[in-house]
Amino acid sequence: MASTTAQTSSTGGSVGAYLLHRAKPHLPPWLGLAGVGIAGSGAHLMWADSVGAGVGLTLSAVALTGATWWAGRETSAQRRLHSAITVAAGSAWVTGAALAGPLTGALPDAYLMGGAVLALSWNVRMALRTSDGPAPESADKGLLAKVGLAKARIGRTEVEPNRVTAALALEGGEQTNDDVARALVRIASALDLPQSAVRYQPSSDSARRGELVIVPRDMLGDPVEWQGPSLPGGSIADPLVIGQYDDGSPLMVWLPGDPDVGRNASHFLIAGMTGSGKGDAALNLMTEILSRRDVVMWLSDPKAFQDYRPLLPAYDWAVEGGAGTEAMVEALQHVIPARTGWLGKHSYRQWSEQAAGQQTDKAHSCRPDRTACGCPGLPYMVAWMEEAANTLRNLGDDVFTGIAQEARSAGVSLIVSLQRPSYDQMSTSTRASLPSVIALGCDPRDEGFSLPDSVTNQGAHPGAWGNRKPGYCYVVSSGIDEDRYASPGRTCQFTPRAVSLMETLAQWAVRNGATADPITTAAARAVVGNAYTGRATDHIDETTEQTTVGEQDDDMPQTSLLDPEDAAMDPEAELPGAQQGDDAGGLFGQDKGRNPSPAEHRAMFAQALAEFEAAGQMVVGPVDFMDWCDKHGLSRPWVSARLKEAYEDGRLQPTNKTGRWRIVPALTPA
Question: Which of 156, 247, 229, 281 minimizes the C-alpha distance to 481?
């Protein structure tokens, strides 16, 4: 019996709780109806005989109805109209009840019948919305259905200025993040936005979850002129600002690594078709580098510094291509291990800002007793190869691979700029050694060469710009949040008005920037001799006395009018006697001339090498000797034989390219 009673009680309680649970969502309209009755009755007690109160209540009813209509602008048209009618009816009844009394005339009937109908209409609306039948699709679900992602679910949504981020969960076992990547262009079409405005950031922990990012307004449409470097006199370890993202935030990159934040040093590839703004992008990065106090830059530019001439004084070493670039590459291959050795001896696992200054910290001493060594610092170094396709063709496909693989630990960043980084321009190994990229507009077929597949899958498509939007770019590099990889940015524009400021920056760098350290200088000159000039740092000091026209200092060297080739001749010496063949030259069947002895062969070739070395051309081959051979009546086989002898004597060393030799600088007498 007790058991039956308990069961009945339990069942009754469960039924009651269920009915209460089901009734709760439908109670608000009826509670609102009761509130209107109480408000009308209370208002009648206070303002029954007040004309002013009648006017105020009428105006309040109109204002409340208008506010309801305005607030419902983001909802559906039916809900907006339903809400406005309900508020208008309720406020009108309260006004009438307050002035005439809640029980006067038709007011009680209107309250009981009209109020009940309105409350029931809201109950019906709620029942239809929560019934088991198919519910009307939301705008989000309708959009996803249109693009083939009907079973996906939109989760938490964050709305920021000019940026909407929505969490997206796909149907397990049926959809993956790759499906979203393929649907991005259709989503952009459905929203009537450019392709670059919609991107997807897949979760690293799930194959079916990620975030859909929509940037409705392009803030990059108006170009921004370059106004100067972002941090003049700062360190190269600080971020380099080269433009802005489409949401207005600064576009920043880093070159040196930082173990404290887990950032590796970066080598950069700058890629973009003609007209895409590659030159301006390079100038943004280059001016940022040259404005820092602890970095030196080497530049190879086969275009004869067409874009960079105002900055020419700021470079530590600049060459126009050809043999000069060959010498620079050879020097880099020897400078890198020398710099790595210096960093290792001073207990630096990688270059840091502290390495650029004088070594006064005993923790970074090269002395065995670990006392402060006081060695000069080692500035960061940037090797910039402009129009690198020419260099790759001339020096070999993998000329940069070894340099890039070893340079980061030496405090050296390699920057390679070319129009099309395709496989016929550079090898897979070379491309892999340049993981950081500034990808400007390109041919759609070249997107895979510029950006990793993981970034294009997120919605990055530089091929959509081509050369129609100069300066637009995607930047992939260590130090940048991976969520930003697919966010487009735009570099600043360099106009003719920027030339004067660039020249000022170059002069600042000459006076205040870093100069090459002794280790880098010695390694470079040991390989290419005086072809490496280093940056000129001499400038006129206002306190220095100037020699006026007409005055001559006895200590100053006298200008000679003698031809340098005749400087060693003794004007009083007798001329040498004629030798067999000297005067005939092969005429009328006579001998063609005297055949030099082997010793003379070597002396003549040594003279030729000395002339090349004096001119700063430290990489030579048979083609470079053709004019010299024509001048002396010698043949190409003669040059080949002499090249072999010079190699055996240690005066030449082979380079990466067949047929090209590096001149070993001659020792200077002490």
Answer: 247
Task: Please answer whether residues 327 and 619 qualify as being in contact, where contact means their C-beta atoms are separated by less than 8 angstroms.
Answer: yes
Residue 79 lies in a domain: yes
pLDDT at residue 596, rounded to an integer = 61
Query: Across the 670 residues of the chain, what is the mean pLDDT of every consecutive 10-residue run?
Result: 46 66 79 82 80 78 83 77 83 81 81 82 77 49 74 81 84 86 86 84 87 83 91 96 90 93 91 93 97 96 91 94 86 91 92 94 90 94 88 72 85 91 76 90 88 89 91 94 91 95 95 93 88 66 33 36 43 45 38 58 77 75 74 71 77 75 63
Closest CA to 139 of 209, 183, 83, 187: 187
CA-nearest of 455, 498, 480 to 286 is 498
Q: Indicate the helix (H) or strand (E) that contains 464.
A: none
The count of domains in the chain is 4
Whether residue 285 is found in the same domain as residue 334:
yes
Q: What's the domain range around 413? A: 240-528
Same domain, 191 and 124: no
Measure CA 423 to chain center: 22
Query: What is the domain-level CATH number for residue 258?
Result: 3.40.50.300
**Residues 391, 275 within the same domain:** yes
What is the per-residue pLDDT for 397? 64
Give the orientation angle of helix 27-47 with respect to helix 77-100, to 10 degrees. Answer: 30
Pair of tokens at residue 473 = 């770019």
Question: Is 199 in contact with 191 (CB distance < 8 Å)?
Answer: no
What is the dihedral sign for C-alpha 125, 127, 132, 138?
positive
Residues 520 and 604 in one domain: no
Residue 545 lies in a domain: no
Q: How many residues does the chain have?
A: 670
Encode 274-322 in three state secondary structure.
Answer: CCCCHHHHHHHHHHHHHCCCCEEEEEECCCCCCCCHHHHHHCCEEECCC
pLDDT for position 626 = 75
pTM of the model: 0.64
52 domain-assigned: yes
Could you tell me if 414 and 300 lie in one domain? Answer: yes
Q: Any bridge partners for residue 208, and if so which?
A: none
Last residue of a domain, which of 172, 196, 214? 214
Contacts of residue 360, defined as CB under 8 A and 6 or more positions apart, other chains included, come to 372, 374
Helix (H, G, I), strand (E, B) or coil at 439: strand
Distance CA 578, CA 575 (A): 9
Angle subtended by helix axes 323-345 and 388-395, to nearest 10: 90
So what's the pLDDT on residue 288? 97
Residues 515 and 367 in one domain: yes
The answer on 143 and 105 residing in a single domain is: no
605 with 456, same domain: the answer is no
pLDDT of amino acid 595: 56
Collect all residues with Cβ–Cβ distance below 8 Å to 535 and sequence separation of at least 6. Answer: 296, 313, 314, 315, 316, 317, 510, 513, 515, 516
Token readout for 555 is 């200590």
CATH of the domain at 162: 3.30.1360
Q: Two tokens at 69? A: 């209509």
Residues 6 or more apart whose CB falls under 8 angstroms from that of 201 comprise 210, 211, 213, 458, 482, 483, 486
Give 497's contacts (C-beta < 8 A, 6+ positions apart): 225
At residue 301, φ and ψ (nearest 5 deg) are -140, 100
Say if 342 falls within a structural domain. yes
